[in-house]
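Entry: AtuA-like ferredoxin-fold domain-containing protein
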Amino acid sequence: MSTVDSYADVRAGDKGDTLILDVLARDQAAYDLLAGALTAEAVAAHYALDLTGPVVRRLLPGVRALVFVLPGALGGGVTGSPVLDGHGKALSYHLLGYRVPSRLDGPA
């Protein structure tokens, strides 16, 4: 097993109290692997946050990216959250540690 960090970079952004994660695969094989492993349900379980709605996943095959929207993940957002990381930038690193089967492991 490998982690997302082996196959992609992750960027985080925010819109209000919604966390937006962009997973940018390094090549087509990595995109195919991550598109199979990183479901909306898997990402929701990995973060285990008290969200205000379901995690939404969008596939962008033209740029080999996956976008995840986690509503309510930032506890009020930049101006309303008492947490240190109101933008959620550090939360991108958490997804890099998600374990996925390596290309040699075969199907999960």
